[in-house]
Amino acid sequence: MKNHADEFSSFAETIASLGSLTKLESAVATAIKTSRVPPKETRKLLKCMSVQEASNTALFQFMRDLFEKIGIGQLEIIRNDIFRFDFAIGDSPVCRLYPHVKGKKTCYISSESLAQFFSKDLSLPGTVEETACRNAGDRRCEFAVSLQPLAVYQLALDDMDKAIIAGVIDGHDKAQISQQHEMTEEEMLFRMNILRRYKILDDGYRITEIGETYHKYGEGMGGAEEDFQPPWRDMAKISNAISASTSFAEAFTETADKEPLWDVKEKDIVNLAEEAKKSKSFAELLSKRVKSDMEE
Ligand SMILES: [Zn+2]
User: Fold this and answer.
1) Which of 39, 47, 151, 238 lies in the 20 to 30 Å Cα band around 18?
2) CB within 5 A of ion ligand 1: which residues?
3) Residue 137 lies in a domain
4) Could you read off the pLDDT of 265-296 as tens digits, one per residue?
5) Domain limits for position 193
C-alpha cells in the first residue's frame, strides 16, 4: 500500500498532475479533430526510404509542431520501416508529471495521441507501445507505431505504381514501361525501388507473391481518393483551437480546486493514485469516483 502512495508525494500534487493530464487530453482531442491530412501527403511519408527523408516531409514537420503545441514534447523519427515508425521524445513533459515514479514507463497519453493521430488523421490504424521511458531509467522516451499492413498498402501506392505493377506482370521490361508512361528510366527505377521496399517486386525487379496478390485484389481498394487542403496551411487556427480547449480545461480544474470536494484521508490518496493508474482519462476517473461515492 505504502508504495503506491509514494508515487505521488502529496494529495495536492496528485490533483495538480491530474489537472495537467486533463489539459493534455483536451489538447490532444482538439488537435486530432482539426488535423486530417490528405492521402497524397501521407503517401509521401510512406514512400520515404530513410529516416532523414521522412523527417523532412511536410507531414512530419507538421506533426512535430502539432505535438509540441499539444504539450507532448519534441518528436523525432528514429526508425521508418514499411509497417513501423518509431519516435523518440528527448525530454518529455509528460514524464515530468510523474516526478516520483521510478522504474516504470508512464507516458500512456503520448502513446495514445500518436495512435489517434495515425488512425484518425492519417487513416493508418495500428498500435502504439512505449518501448523506452525516462521514468523507467532510459535516456529518452521511445514509441513504436505498428501499422496495419493492408491500410499501408492502400495508401502507399498510387495509380502510376499500379500501372507499373501491371506492366511488370505483362512481362514488359523497364525501358518499355518507362516509355509507355513517358517517364525517364531514372524515375522508373526510383519508383521500382519503392515497390521493392514494399515487397511488391523482388531484388531482380520481378513480381513477388505479394505483388501478384496486390495486383489481383488491390485494384478495387480504396476507391476515389479525397483531396483537400493540408492542415499545415492553417496552423494558426489549430493553435487557437488547442489553446481555447486547454484554457477551458484549466478553468474547469481551477473551479474544482476552490472548494475541497471531499475530506482527504490517507485511504483516499492511495485509492485515487491506484484508480488514476487504471483510468484512461480524468473524466473516467471522475465518473468512477462519483459512482463509488453514490454507492457508499
Ligand atoms: Zn515516457
Assistant:
1) 238
2) 95, 107, 133, 141
3) yes
4) 555 555 555 665 665 555 555 555 545 545 44
5) 154-218
